[in-house]
Amino acid sequence: MKKSHGPAFRKVMKPLRACYDCRGSGLRMGMFHQLECATCNASGWVCAETGEALPLADLVLQLGMKLRALERDLALADQQSGPQQQYEQNNRLGAGGSNYTGD
Ligand SMILES: [Zn+2]
């Protein structure tokens, strides 16, 4: 029989939303200084379900996951909107609305 180690389930990305108190900036205007927003642990993000700040350890993990996911999306979007895609997309410049690439 196999023994499993560590937590039973994987860490999953939680839905986050911008903090209303600081409008997602992580900072609030105090009397004279900008103050770190206590509502969201100065991250600008709170849990979309509860509206509460995530514990710092979780927050770092969640923001890291979010950042990596966005980087991945961005890299993907970059690839897709490159010259290759423009070339392959129908530009309707050819006869009868067909693709014309000039070569
Ligand atoms: Zn906040």
How would you briefly describe this protein structure?
With 103 residues, this protein is α+β, with helices and mostly antiparallel strands. The chain is built from two helices and four strands; from the N terminus they run ββββαα.
The kinds of small molecule bound in this structure are: zinc ion
Share of helix, binned:
25-40%
> For the CA atoms, what is the radius of gyration?
23 Å
Order the strands across the largest sheet as they lie in space.
1-4
Which geometry do the CA atoms define? Answer: elongated
Q: How far apart, in Å, are the first and last alpha carbons?
A: 65 Å
Count of runs of 4 or more consecutive helical residues: 2
User: Roughly what is the average pLDDT, rounded to an integer?
Assistant: 85
Largest sheet: 2 strands, antiparallel
- Poorly predicted segments: none
Structural class: alpha+beta
> Roughly what fraction of the amino acids lie in strands?
5-15%
| Multimer state | single chain
Give the number of DSSP strands: 4
Order of helices and strands: EEEEHH
Protein architecture, described:
The model has no long low-confidence stretch (mean pLDDT 85). The strands form two sheets. Strands 1-4 form a two-stranded antiparallel sheet. It has a two-stranded antiparallel sheet with strand order 2-3. The chain has two helices and four strands; from the N terminus they run E-E-E-E-H-H. It starts with 15 loop residues before the first strand and ends in a 15-residue tail after the last helix. With 103 residues, it is α+β, with helices and mostly antiparallel strands. It has a domain of 64 residues. Helix content is 30%, strand content 12%. Bound molecules: zinc ion.
